[in-house]
Amino acid sequence: MPAITSLQPRLVAQFDQIVARAQLSQAYIFNGPSGTGKAQLAEWLAMRLFCENLQAGMPCGQCPECQRILTKNHPDVVWLTSDAKSIKVDDMRALKAEMSKSGVEGNQRVFIITDADKLTAGAANSLLKFYEEPVPGMTIILTTTTKNQLLPTILSRAQVINFPAPPRDTVAAELVESGVPARLANLAAHLTVDVTAGQALAADPNFEPRLTKVLALVSKLTNHDDTAFVAVQTTLMPLAKSLPDQQQLLAMLALAYADALNRHYEVPTTGAYGNDATIQVLAAQPARRLSDGLAAVLAAQIQLSQNVTFQSTLEALVLELL
Ligand SMILES: [Zn+2]
User: Ligand 1: distance of its center to the CA of 20 in Å?
Assistant: First the structure.
């Protein structure tokens, strides 16, 4: 993961100015895709506030204050991160106990809740007290990939900072630099803008076979080859056992149709599949067939999210695409 100063230079400069002018708000929502540096900026901001050895406004990362923040051992920089599916009122208890204390070593305190979209309504409501009775020097940062899933009461009282995603070709270039083959890097960069997640995708031994089989399916569909239906059971199902893998397979299929549409209209873009011959043949189909195809894949993605089994979703999709 690149340093936050190169990942989000504009936001770093913005928060440097905010701290320099002592204009830090009471509550922020850091909103953006995963891999865009939300937690890193929160950590940087904490170091910017506490560092004993600022270098032209930049925290040094070396002094005891910075070190304690980096190792998550600073008493006035409190994190709540959870691997569970939701953050419940119980999980908030320790954080709230901390919030009601005054600063251990100074007046400034920072509370960071990552993946705040996982807050249950009860947990979110228990935060409101701290929104309504501001404590001087206390800053709460919530990070989220989907700010619209936060309660309106939480959203309206905080300042929303949007984290822009890096361009796909930048992500792909970083993946290639880390040793991922170009063909896989390009596709992975269209599935995630998070370089670390992209590396994990490419490292999955089934990622490349999935790509190959999806392209084989596309080829059959283009040729109105009825064996496409059988291929669902024989070649695709064994490569997509978990829900994330199934979602990925449908995403690969959606990207194939999106790429073909772009190519059909000669939109100048690299696309997820580069110059792949299968996509070029698909792109020669009538535009209507391509846009209907893309719509059908997107509808299948919604079906899968609504707990329809993968096999019946994919079989129905293939029949429609044929
Ligand atoms: Zn420092």
Answer: 16
How remote is the CA of residue 54 from the centroid of ligand 1, in Å? 6
Percent of the chain with pLDDT over 70: 98
What residues flank ion ligand 1 with Cβ within 5 A? 51, 53, 59-60, 63, 66
**How many Å lie between the centroid of ligand 1 and the Cα of residue 51?**
4
Are β-strands 109-113 and 138-144 bridged in parallel, bridged antiparallel, or unpaired?
parallel
Measure Cα distances from 86 to 33, 62, 90, 91, 247 in Å. Answer: 19, 35, 11, 9, 21
- The pLDDT tens digits for 144-199 are 998 988 989 889 889 999 999 888 888 899 999 999 999 999 999 999 988 889 99
The percent of residues in the chain predicted with pLDDT above 90, rounded, is 72
Same domain as 44, residue 144: yes
- Whole-angstrom distance, CA of residue 185 vs CA of residue 37: 20
Q: What is d(CA 142, CA 322) in angstroms, rounded to the nearest whole number?
A: 46
Q: How far away, in angstroms, is 178 Cα from ligand 1 center? A: 29
Within a domain: residue 123? Answer: yes
Report the separation in Å between the CA atom of 68 and the middle of ligand 1, taken as the mean of its atom positions.
10
> What is the predicted pLDDT for the residue at 104?
61
Structural domain contains residue 65? yes
* Cα of 69 from ligand 1 centre, angstroms: 9
- Tally of domains within the chain: 2
Query: Is the confidence at residue 290, as pLDDT, over 60?
Result: yes
CATH no. for residue 123?
A: 3.40.50.300
